[in-house]
Write the structure tokens for this entry.
Amino acid sequence: DGLAQGISPVLPSLLAGPPALREMALRVAVTLNIRDLAPRLEEVFAESVGEPTLRETAFKALLALTDRKSQLIERGLRDNAESIRLAAVEELAMDRPLQALPKLEQLITSESSVAIQRALQIVQAIGERGPGTKTASSGKRPPKGGNPALAAKRESLLLQAFVRQQEGSLEHLLRYCAR
């Protein structure tokens, strides 16, 4: 707590520095849970349009440090930047996995290999959380065996993602051979 109090006054000036310094300051704010920095994080998120990594870090910091998680997820899902949309889907999946399944399916069927790969990672992470994952409808933990609907859809999405990755590899190989 003393460290957070000591560094908190310095963070706004660090957030005015070059992108690498700003990213570091964002990570420090999250690590030390400095919530009063949230308004400045909104500014960094809004003004960093040309810096996708910094924007994504600011978005994740906002998710961690504000109580407006649902609003931020919805905003992120509508963002123009793929990295922000992916971060929003990831947060939605960790918070409300059943609600995230349609979004994950969209990512898996997209043309973006980055989106397909990230969706696969997110679906795998949902499975790793296992029985501890909260259900979207009640907010309560499912019975010890897990949520059967979530498990079945997860397996289906994993298979779809695997097939999409293989299709992409085959397309790449065919293009390479056609040269």
Summary: Residues 130-144 have pLDDT under 50 and may be disordered. The radius of gyration is 19 Å.
